Amino acid sequence: MFAAGFLPAHARQQVEALAFFVELWTKHAVLIPVQFLAYHPPASSRILAVIGTDRYRSRMNLEDHLGDIICKARAMSGVSAATAAAATGISETELSALEATGQRGKRPDFTALANLIGLNPAKLEAIANGWHPAEKDLSLWRELRQISTTEGGNTVHCYLIWDEVTRDTALFDTGWDAAPVFKLIEENQLQLKHLFITHTHEDHVAGLQQIRERFPKIHLHTDARGAPPQHRNRRNDFIMLGSLRITNRETPGHAEDGVTYIIGTWPEDAPHVAIVGDAIFAGSIGRGNQSWALARQKVREQIFTLPAETLICPGHGPLTTVTEEKAHNPFF
Predict the structure, then answer these.
(1) Phi-psi region for residue 150, left (φ > 0), alpha (ψ -120 to 50) or beta?
(2) pLDDT tens across 295-310, in order?
(3) Are residues 179 and 38 in the same domain?
(4) pTM for the whole structure
(5) Which of these, 195, 207, 223, lies nearest to 156 by C-alpha position?
(6) Domain end: 77, 106, 128, which one?
(7) Roughly how many angstroms between the first and final C-alpha of the chain, as a whole number?
(8) CA distance 201 to 220
């Protein structure tokens, strides 16, 4: 169906994941492309974690260190390593080491660098000086769990929410492995009704087959163009999960089918929760595979317009808030 060999690497990944996604959800006999399975190590090598209502016991690292942010911004702005190094007073070798490790030797001119590659100088300097979002007390959202799974060094988060009275439950993305999701459902006597997909990159939908087999009547929500019409998000729709209200906003740029889900009307007036996929991370954004300009535009329009105290739940890295990202994210 697709001439994948002629596509860039990130586009091939999107095509393979989307083909798997559509095929899985529309056929009874599931046929999984070889390319989709090739990356997966044995299940015994997976790292699984669930973060619940307690405060973090240890601080989660930013998804993108200082060097990652600089490398992404150079790609976004089309600035070569030689040009960036010359502007900041360090050698190409020193810049390469900084981008690879996040650790600097000779201090570069961060103001000159940020201005050259389209970042906010003061915010980039803060990242260099160790800025990190404040730890979040998830007891404010008693029926919210962050589930982290790791394969091949790639840690991804999915999120489970439920209504405390009806026990009706929704899952946002699947991560690499659905086993910890099933464990939470059993432990809390939940009824999984909905699966919301933020985008169809492999690490976010790898557990689809497990979910589909365990819960064949679950209702899927996605912005994927190839999904059946009944599963496509509509912008003005809202889903009630007991007393919880779920809406959606389109956030493409990292992925063509990127979408952010907003969860409101929590008990005791807890702030809104935004499940953003890879649209934004604490201190960074997802790579602009579709369009860097569109990715930043949609964050400004669809995420930064949410209430300031909204909890941002990204696909990678620590939790953050709208206030923190508007004040500290160097891409804005």
Answers:
(1) beta
(2) 999 999 999 999 999 9
(3) yes
(4) 0.87
(5) 207
(6) 128
(7) 39
(8) 16
